[in-house]
Amino acid sequence: NQLMHCDEFSISVAFISRSGFVELSETLKELERRGIKGRILTTDYLHFSDPYALDRLAALENVELKMYHVDEAGVGFHTKGYIFKKEEIYRIYRIIIGSSNMTQTALSTNMEWNTQLVSTEQGEMAQSIVKEFETLWSDDASYTYEEFSEVYRKEYKHKKQIDRLVR
Description:
This protein has about 170 residues and is α/β, with parallel strands linked by helices. The chain contains 6 helices and 7 strands. Strands 6-5-4-1-2-3-7 form a 7-stranded mixed β-sheet, with helices on both faces. The radius of gyration is 16 Å and the shape is globular. The N and C termini lie far apart (about 40 Å).
């Protein structure tokens, strides 16, 4: 709902699954058609994010996708935040922070705890959250899709092979 009513969006989630992309795909395609720009930041943490979903997100003309490399950064990355900007009388931010990654179950059926903040751009909490997103987005450990996709795909495949052997 927030995606359909924003002028711009920024999403920071640790995990993006194929089913999570499918859950949002029609909405994201509609935003692409309308020219609503978005940025999505995810991570290579646990090599969980599905390359299929990442490829589909990167193929959207209105979406810029980056991946935060936790080993390089030396810190964990387990964020789950959705920032929606709307130009009204004032610039309004609707920010959802909580436990929902971009997976179908998190977005539709799991018991997740999220909270929504609605604020003008002058709000202290909104400024803090937006600043944190911008810091992560600009960090040297955040790579564009073109920079990370090939290496990540190999790492993801390797992890899946190890997971099968362990079972």
